[in-house]
Amino acid sequence: MSLKLGVPSKGRLMDKTFDWFAKRGLTLSRTGSEREYAGRVDGIDGVELVLLSASEVPRELAAGRIHLGVTGTDLLLEKLPRWEQQVEEVAPLGFGFADLILAVPQFWIDVDGLDDLDAVAARFRVDHGHRLRIATKYHRLVREFLGDAGVADYQLVDSQGATEGTVKNETAEMIADITSTGETLRANHLKILSDGLVLKSQATLWRSRTAKYEAEDKATLNQLRDLLDS
Amino acid sequence: MANTSDIQARAQRLRMNFEAAGAKLVEPPILQSAETLLDLYGEDIRARAYVTSDALRGEQMLRPDFTVPVVERHMRQSAEPARYTYAGEVFRRQEHDPDRANEYVQVGYEVFDRANPAAADAEVFALISMQLRDLPVRPACGDIGILTAAVQGLNTSDLRKSALMRHIWRPRRFKSLLDRFAGRTTVSEHREKLLSTEGAVSASAPEIGKRRAADIDARMEALRADAKVAPISENEISALETLLAVRETIPFAVEQLRDVAVDLPTISHALDRLDARVVAMRARGIDVDNLEFEASYGRTSMEYYDGFVFGFYANNRPDLPAIATGGRYDALTRYLGNGREIPAVGAVLRPDLMLQLEEGAQ
């Protein structure tokens, strides 16, 4: 057996993950053609590279089909309830920083924080006949955050992309989405609620608590941890 | 653990007891309109109920309880008074505690009767109590109607009262609103700056989305008016806080609540209703003198109850959920009734937990 390490299969997240491991003496590389999702790990024995979509990493870790995996805190916490039971955080990787935030139109000058939002949601429902819609793909995290804050009379509508555009298109009144610089929010005339930070996220290396570890896998894991710590 | 057929058999027996008490058997479908439940409970219901969907009917929920479909049914067909019973599975999504059942059987008894609400409260409580008479359980009760009467009676603006009413079932939010309305918290810098402006406030940002400039101007006016409202007096706040903390056997609770009514006289009618209920319960042989009353009972989990609320809990088994829960939900009938309404009270039993307690006793 060998330890399976799941890494995002494309883009900057893959490149930066490869760089991060390279700095610690492990060379991750793709093999075969550009379209073939196969890879290898040099610098340690007994580790197998699995390339997959970052959004599939949480599920694969929870199912124990990979032992280690790189993905954002946002995706992991959204997809795995009781995540502490299923995975362990090995190391934050120091890139892929993004905040999951609540944002409303800039011209809502009367709204600064969650207190305002709650009051506005109540009024909006009376005036418009439906609950105030929040476009997001982070349903669970946003629901728990608003539940804890005691915000009522809102409705989550699913948005898997171009979420910032939903307000202008009037399919939602506000959004909950990931932002790193706030550039896209500003371009879409949105502002972040003063206490609307749901989660700070970054790319993180996780270890599955449910995967099977043979004796040699445990040895490999220890060796790997030493390399990563140094 | 009791097996499924034992639980079903017990459920049928309980249901027959309720039929013998005059209830008509109803069998609501397992799949319920998600829209109705979402409008009622808000988005939080998604964390508690299983959602499924098809292309024709859209989102459906596996029934998280029977009360809503029973009320809907009653409001469609108007014969009254009416008593209903049902027995079947309910489904509760669990995201935090794997030991909690996500599917279990409930047997219920619901009374729609305008004649004498106090007598109906006592009838339901006594009937449930009767089914549990041989089990090591203890009841607790409360009355949401006293809380709402207290809030309605506060000497403050309607806007503030309705904000508090809206969050009766969210104690933390309720507390922070109360602190704000009592002037215990400082006004935020943002709000202060906002209030320093006059007239319609136009932002430089473009107007996007369905919430329009008119909506914002309306709220600005409301905020300016609210800034002029005097804080709720210390006297009323402390009376309300005393009320919320009442936790005593009924005779002592009533005494304390009457004391509170000196400062919050609007609760007097609700206390009269409590008195009438106590009389009716006593007439049915309930040991009212030892019955625990908690003024805050039912504030965290029982969102549609708005009057009498109660539950039965296993002695020495704080790990178990309530064996039975019930209460009055007049407002729910109004909400689902399309202009009609009727006083209603009901309760459900958990036959699985009853069997578990019996096994434990042997």
TrEMBL record, chain A:
Keyword set, alphabetical order: Amino-acid biosynthesis, Glycosyltransferase, Histidine biosynthesis, Transferase
GO biological process, one term: L-histidine biosynthetic process
Pathway named in the protein's UniProt entry: Amino-acid biosynthesis; L-histidine biosynthesis; L-histidine from 5-phospho-alpha-D-ribose 1-diphosphate: step 1/9
E.C. number: 2.4.2.17
Keyword Amino-acid biosynthesis belongs to the record: yes
NCBIfam families per record: hisG
UniProt protein name: ATP phosphoribosyltransferase
Species for this entry: Tritonibacter litoralis
UniProtKB/TrEMBL annotation, chain B:
Record GO terms (molecular function): glycosyltransferase activity; histidine-tRNA ligase activity
TM annotation in the entry: none
Keywords: Glycosyltransferase, Transferase
Protein name, entry field: Histidine--tRNA ligase
Coiled-coil positions: none
Signal peptide (from-to): none
Species of provenance: Tritonibacter litoralis
Domain Aminoacyl-transfer RNA synthetases class-II family profile intervals: 14-351
